[in-house]
Predict the 3D structure of the following.
Amino acid sequence: MSRRWAWAFVWIALLGLGIRCFRLDLRPMHNDEAVNAIRQAAAWKQEPYRYHPGEHHGPTLYYFSLVTIRLLGVQSFGELDEATLRLTPALAGTVLIPLLWPLRSVIGGAAVGMAALFTALSPALVFYSRNFIHEMLLALFTWILGLAVWHYVKSRKAIWLMLAGAALGLMHATKETFVFPVAALGVAILGVAYWEGGVGAWTRLRRAVALNHLVLGLAVALAVSVTFYTSFFSHWRGPLDALWAYLPWTQRALGDSPHIHPWYFYLERLLGYQRPRGPWWSEATILLWAAVAAVAAIRGTGLHDLPRRWLRGLLLYAAALTLIYTAIPYKTPWCLVGFWHGFVLLAGVGCAVAWRWLAHPGARVVHVALSAATALHLGWQCVQANFVRYADWRNPYVYAQTVPDLLRMVERVQELARVHPEGLRMPVQVSAPRHEYWPLPWYWRTFERIGWYDHFPATVFAPVIVAAAEWDVRWDDRSNRRWLMAGLYEIRPRVFLELYVEVELWKQWLAQRNLAASAGPDASHDSARRQE
């Protein structure tokens, strides 16, 4: 790699880091993020992590997040904020960029540089790097697994299979869907072997892997997985629950879930997505550059020093993983990270291959213009998706996203607690079907007496009541005006919550607000700080 490409790589990595870590607190917590944040409390309190076979995912997100939390010096769970939690997946998504550096001797500086640029700017990869969910950790460990397997194929050194085993164990301890990228990697290895040498190549491939190296790698994978699922050897039921998990998760994947979508669900969001009065979204240029790499892989000529087997393996991996995810009825948009990362890498290679194929100066000028247009378009969409339309339902990467309007209710109830005699011990009752009140448990985590219900409670006693609007409880009328309706708030698109406040508490809050307003903004701020 030339010094020019080396410096470009450094700046691209810094760009990727900045765009992933800037204003991580901008978007309201998604309900899945909030669930993960509450489960982070167990790791915070150094309690054994209890894996649930039917809900949530593996423990790596919580334990790796605990490292960043400690390094940032957060003193209590109440002080923990969205930016601190989201920093771990943001860093995982960023690390995907410098981990391209080992490929510079394999695919060349230009291909590595362009792959790094597309990774840094892909709106999908950036958006899900800024979510406190497991997907980016799974993508990172998968990439480490692929790199380790490639280096073992070249060197036959046991250390690489040990690294592959560690990555495999981390994948298993991250999310149940780790089986999909592992299956796709198996398809890629066997497919390349057959592609390169026919049926006989499979026998040569089997002989190329030393049995003792394979056993060693699998032992490392088992050790890593068991370490995490047992919460560092304090909860021995964890590994068994991790096996049982595939019964409910298989049913869910086959259709027993509200997240059932058509086969083109991911492709629509990536290649061409538009909703009423919304902009046109597309990362199709990445797929076009990836198609150039695919042509080069299939033809197997004109690659110069590019390793044909590596390129064919990446193509088969990305294609196989795409087919797996599109075939499964259960779909959530962040699952696209795994296979889309493969196509982003192919796009970088395709950009470099196209440059080599084009000898005419005019054609190369067009190539540079198209590459720049791709980067600029991705960058514009990245800014729109993450910093402008970060909670807009017309954003293709937004899915059941919390509406910022909910934060007004969060703040209002916190203000009511400041004037209530018991402060954070003020009773609150929250009810909504299907646990539709998330992410409120995260935002009100410092309250000590909150009741959570999936039905409207038969006995109402709290001065603050939150109820699903779809129930139309009309508690102000039913309570003979002892409570009044203090607002209607949107929690997710077209999903609303009603806020009811006891009349006497509401009067106290109004008096406090009027007093603060008459004293001026500085006095209002000082008064709020004293009450906190």
